[in-house]
Amino acid sequence: MGKPKPHTExxxxxxxxxxxxxxxxxxxxxxxTIKPSDSNLKNSSVENSLHALVQEKLxxxxxxxxxxxxxxxxxxNDSSRRAEIDELDAKIQxxxxxFNSLQDRISATSLKLKELDSLLxxxxxxxxxxxxxxxxxxxxxxxxRLEGQNPISQEVKSNVEKxxxxxxxxxxxxxxxxxxxxxxxVENLGKAHFNSxxxxxxIEPDLTPFNEDATSKLxxxxxxxxxxxxxSKKIFAx
Length: 238
Known about the structure:
Blueprint: H1 7-21, E1 25-26, H2 27-34, H3 43-55, E2 59-64, E3 67-72, H4 79-118, H5 122-146, H6 154-189, H7 191-201, H8 212-228
Antiparallel strand pairs: 1-3, 2-3
Helix pairs in contact: 1-3, 6-7
């Protein structure tokens, strides 16, 4: 049969078990934890050590359901620990500012990267420029072939003048009919009564002047431009 553990050694064993379990323990629970590793322990020795630790304020005790519950005393933070925490806080603040600054730079860089991703790569851009140059050359060649030519044929011009003359004659007829109707109504009913009747039956006077001079000038200018002048050759000098 082995010797019982000295008082100091037993105290350290109890404190180490509380530190490992980090929860309140009753005497029975503590004995069940300690005894499997040391069968020489006596219940009275463990209980006396617990009471001594409570007296020394290393453990706390409370009676619950007719048995005492024990747990380690929570040590308040000492001044040195508080100073260490304050020092760490002082170091964290500038690091947090640096972190926020880096986040802003990362966001700005990400936006620029997205813009770059949306652009054509160099090889595709060169190919696109080459295609534009070919299209430009094709258009210049077509322009050269049209140089000195009148794109408006005499047949098209005659058709336009014919349609214009028909529209002009029809407008003159409608104007004459309206003026005749207005004259008859005004002579028999008066001007004011005619205006009222005109609105009721929906007569449209259509008296907007038909600008014959302006239209004739436009046709003459168009003909002169395409028949007497050619495109400037300075376009093809570049």
